[in-house]
Amino acid sequence: YDERSGRFFLDRVLYSSVHYPTDYGYVIDTLAGDGDPLDVLVLVQEPTFPGCLIAARPLGGLDMHDEKGSDFKVLAVPVGDPRYDHVRTLADVGEHWLREIETFFATYKLLEPKQTEVLGWHDLAETRQTIALCRERFRAARGDQ
Question: 47, 50, 60, 134: which could form a disulfide with 90 (CB 3.0–4.6 Å)?
Fold first, then answer.
């Protein structure tokens, strides 16, 4: 999304015949260590659409590094969807789904001249700290007190 023009632009394409295992977006009003908003993966039943705002509850996060440095990704579920009422932590997601997400991010850039390194999952408390830090970084960059 381009803030100045108010338009959506295609940011990137995947070079491999893979697809994101969840809906993929960012946490509003955050600034991650790579200079972009903090990434979020939202477990949904059906794909949404660009620009869709989802009230989501974090479960934990995947710590990664790529060519730009730290690339943390929050894993969340939509608030208000009864299918996810019982899902409160990474343990509730299931080991296979977590491994599927890890494998995607370990391999999705293999055909590009880029590298990724998956460092592992962080629990909800650590993820909330990361979100808070990224919100503080956003406010500081914007000049808020």
Answer: 60
